[in-house]
Design brief:
Elements (H helix, E strand, L loop, with lengths): L4 E4 L3 H7 L4 E4 L5 H6 L9 E4 L9 E4 L2 E5 L4 H6 L1 H6 L1 H9 L3 H4 L4 H6 L52 H6 L3 E4 L3 E3 H4 E2 L2 E2 L7 E7 L6 E7 L10 E8 L2 E7 L6 E2 L1 H6 L3 H7 L19 H15 L1
Parallel strand pairs: 1-3, 2-3
Antiparallel strand pairs: 4-5, 5-10, 6-7, 6-10, 8-9, 11-12, 12-13, 13-14
Helix pairs in contact: 11-12
Length: 309
Amino acid sequence: MNKVTVINATSLDEAVSALGSNSAVLAGGTDILNVLKAFILPDPPDTLVNIKTIPGLSYIEENGGMLKIGAATKLADIAESSVVNGKWSSLAQAARAVGSPQLRHMGTIAGNLVQDCRCWYYRAEQMGFNCFRKGGTLCFLTAGNNDKHSAIFGGQVCFTNSVSDTANPLVALDATIVTTKRNIPAGDLLVVLGNILDDNEIITEIQVPEPAAGTSQIFLKWAERKAIDFAEVSVATAISSSGAKIVLGGVAPVPWRATAAEAALPDVDAAATASVDGAFPLPANGTGNIGNRYKIQLTKAMVKRALQA
């Protein structure tokens, strides 16, 4: 790993001042340290600003019908919280689905939201593939091995999939991401090539309004391995008498709102079928690569399970 300077910030103002174009925030460290050790970036950060040393960024509280979670709150704490499991159970389910117990006791809610993608071309060590995300001119998934960590929706220039488990229920539950600069609807935070945060912007809190009375919510995840692995398809729902939200993970570079499926309700079979409207699976390329067409059927099955739960 290249030489990296670590700044142990004691306040948000200090942390913001220390951040710049060639720096990164250090919280749980479960992703950024692996990125640095593998030399996957052409211009990796040379400064890490540690926010774990800032007091008051780890908490879970309900205040006036609003769930408030500090950005540095561990995923394990969210998964085990009686407050979150009470009214925001899909978020607790998603936090519980992340990685392994060791990772959940290190990883934070903000880190899970903005973690880097898992495309094996992007993550190849020693800059093995100069893909579009790194300044190259193509996405290697389109002509390469694309059966895992790939999108069937909205790839545009990059066909990797979203990997944040917690992002899906947060979008479905109309959460707001509070930063040192602004309030961002959860559905607007992530974009095809990453997120909309400025270089010197830090997430400080996640706010989730209390769901309407009678709201049905769930988070389900399918991964090739039951533990540790990232979702190939996941689904978060929030359904009430006033409307429905169905948010898919693992099928697009961002959490994908299945609006056609929402419109097809209350017919569960029709909603499951409509959940893949507009999908364009990537083809099989070469020996051993099956493509990602299987995600079409898997998505429909996962949506049906979620709606029938």
